Amino acid sequence: MDTLRYYLIPVVTACGLIGFYYGGYWVWLGAATFPVLMVLDVILPKDFSARKVSPFFADLTQYLQLPLMIGLYGLLVFGVENGRIELSEPLQVAGCILSLAWLSGVPTLPVSHELMHRRHWLPRKMAQLLAMFYGDPNRDIAHVNTHHLYLDTPLDSDTPYRGQTIYSFVISATVGSVKDAIKIEAETLRRKGQSPWNLSNKTYQYVALLLALPGLVAYLGGPALGLVTIASMIIAKGIVEGFNYFQHYGLVRDLDKPILLHHAWNHMGTIVRPLGCEITNHINHHIDGYTRFYELRPEKEAPQMPSLFVCFLLGLIPPLWFALIAKPKLKDWDQRYATPGERELAMAANKKAGWPLWCESELGRGGLASI
User: Fold this and answer.
1) What are the residues whose beta carbons fall under 8 Å from the beta carbon of 340, sequence distance 6 or more?
2) Domain ranges within the chain, ordered by starting residue
3) Backbone phi, then psi, for 266, in 5-degree steps?
4) Does this model's pTM top 0.85?
5) Per-residue pLDDT of the chain (371 residues; tens, 9 = 90+)
């Protein structure tokens, strides 16, 4: 039964393929899975159960995603060329963009994320190709070498600071990860005695793959379909950065201290756990990034967030996100989980954001004076 849960991944993606095959207003079918899954994730109880799976069949869901995404775009081109999808119809264009964006972000990002942490070259190459669909084909470089080392510190561009909106975070995280990837690639080549301009530099692959998808789609389906692809990649990139935004929002850590159970937010929804390849069962992934997704142990006592779907929707309206979730959750984290040193960092972050200093009594006058 636990193995079957993960087949939600190809089933959701297959909805997009079916929609593009039939064309017309069926192109909305992929995007329509979002509200259905959201309602189920909200109304069903949280799931803290450990998984008992067949490793082969659980892993198979990961390796199916790349051919499914290629098929998704293939059916899109086929539908346009055969007149089943009319790009002169604004509602059909919107349906194509939103279905592509949603399926390129979820479940493609979680699958790509899982595969980039595998040790073999094949799944890691598949992760890079999957990341092309959400416009970030070199995501693995900064993710593995920066985010996993420096999470919850100012050195990690994938950790949003307190008071930051999702809109500014998408930009800062994108710029930060690209800069980190370029720097890391250059340093890697120098250590090998090669020039950073060597053609083996993965930055060239980044640019090539970023252009390849919309370029190929435009060649096969026309310029308008190329623009649809670009729009979907941009929206998908926003969804992708949203995962980091909601899994690390406002958390702080002493750089010289180890990563502990309270250093990530967890979203333990019955739907989002299998759909997200357990990426929302997050903290033990950071403690050991090589643990397979179905082997991650749920930590009921670790910091918890509401449904990730709800967080995404509220995050689009920053005042609601801050008032209803971010501030109450961070206040609880500061008072219940944070170490004394982390409380000082947290109150300094609150002061910078213009938020209340709710740990004032714990720190005392001496601690506050240094903030």
Assistant:
1) 362
2) 2-329, 338-371
3) -120, 140
4) yes
5) 899 999 999 999 999 999 999 999 999 999 999 999 999 999 999 999 999 999 999 999 999 999 999 999 999 999 999 999 999 999 999 999 999 999 999 999 999 999 999 999 999 999 999 999 999 999 999 999 999 999 999 999 999 999 999 999 999 999 999 999 999 999 999 999 999 999 999 999 999 999 999 999 999 999 999 999 999 999 999 999 999 999 999 999 999 999 999 999 999 999 999 999 999 999 999 999 999 999 999 999 999 999 999 999 999 999 999 999 999 999 999 999 999 999 999 999 999 999 999 997 766 644 554 55
Task: State the helix-helix crossing angle for 308-315 and 223-248, rounded to 10 degrees.
Answer: 110
Angle at 112 between CA 325 and CA 50, to 5 degrees: 65
Which tokens hold the place of 95? 């349906």
One-letter amino acid at 319 equals P
CA atoms of 137 and 37, how far apart (whole Å): 27
Angle at 353 between CA 348 and CA 357, to 5 degrees: 50
C-beta neighbour count of 119 within 10 angstroms: 7
Tokens standing for residue 202:
């993965």
